[in-house]
Amino acid sequence: MMGQGRLAAWAVGLAALIALPFVYRDPYHLHILVLILIWSFAYTSWSMMGRFGLVSLGHGGFMGIGAYVTALLWNHLGWSPWIGIPIGMVAAGALALIVGYPCFRFRITGHYFVLVTLALSGIVLQVITATRDYTGGSLGYTPNRASGNKLLALQFDDKITWYLIALGVWLFGIVVWHWVDRSMARYALEAISEDEDAAAAAGVDVTAEKLKITLLSALMTALAGALYCQYQMFITPDTVSGIAVSLQMVFAAIVGGLFVSLGPTFGAVITILLAETLRIGFGTKAVGWDNLVYGVLLVLFIIFLPKGILGSVLDRLKPQRKVPRAHEQEAVQIARPGT
Amino acid sequence: MQAFLDIFDIYLLEAVINGILLGGVLALLALGLNLIFGVIDVTWICYAELVMIGMYAMYFLVQYYGVSYFVAAPLTILLVAMLGAALHYLVIAPLLTAPPINQLLATGGVLFVLQSFATVAFGIDFRNLGIRLPVLAFGDMNFSYARLLSFLAALVGMVAVYLFMTRTFTGTAIRAISQDRQIMALMGVDTKKIYLITSALGGALAGLAACLLVLQYDVHPFVGLSFGPITFLICVLGGLGNFIGGFIAAFVFAEIISLGGLFSDLEWGYVLAFAFFIVMMFIRPAGLLARRR
Question: What is the pTM of this model?
Answer without folding.
Answer: 0.82
